[in-house]
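Study this protein:
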Amino acid sequence: MKKIKTALVLEGGGLRGAYTAGALSWLLDNNIFFDNAYGISTGAVHLCNYLSESKERLYDFSVDGIVDKRIIGIRPFLRCGRIVDYDFLFDHIIKEEKQFDINDLRDCKTDAFIGLYELNEGKTRYYSIREISLNELKASTSLPIIGKVVKENGREILDGGITDMIPIEQAVADGCNRNLIITTKPLDYVRKPAKKAIVELMRISYPQCKRIAEDYKIRHLNYAKQIELIRKLEENNEAVYCYPSRNSNVTRMGGSREELSELFDLGYQDMEDRKEQILKLLEKDC
């Protein structure tokens, strides 16, 4: 009898993560959990709320809270020189206003991991949610150029989506053979190569890490490889791939509260529409 090891795999996507949050709310309503879970960028934050079984925070973080003008736009740029103020988001809103405590996840029943890009090494590494700090969770969402480098115990870290936009390769490497993958891009999405100016800006902005510009240069190839792996897993009945069933006006950095709420609802409904496939995938008596 083949041993089944299930995994939840979450892409990032900035504000498009409202789709992921809706999908995770569906999982909570259906009492569905996994052996392992992997989150990248915004997906890492929503993963934490799912693991803490908080539907309220899933909605609040992805719809109500994220449209706060103190987080994204001209106000944070004038305040800290960045269009996203991750320090304000995590240290004030998430920690103080929303009363989120990363230590509450120390005893979670799922082996869950987030991806961090280590500038000192020029690679993405995965860390257990049971062991990370709030500062490291902040780093997991801190986009290059847009966000500041986060420092933790002598390390310089950023969003792991620099290399691993969909952390399916890590799930497979960890022996997971039944994977529920939730992405924020439609099925026909094709990632374009990074512009030369952006690659050069990476090179200039992070002189301590020669690798980051090269990783950004081949980011579209890594994404295509991750999608190809998902397709193969689907063919082998080792994955269900969930993605927005219709287009949305929400972008990585922009969207109204109404649009975000609609995207959240779409994530929930898309999961309901694929309920039979998902439950079949996760059957343990195979």
Observations:
- The beta strands are 6-10, 36-39, 111-118, 123-128, 150-152, 155-159, 178-182, 239-242.
- DSSP finds twelve helices and eight strands in the chain.
- The first strand starts at residue 6 and ends at 10.
- Residues 36 and 174 are 9 Å apart (CA to CA).
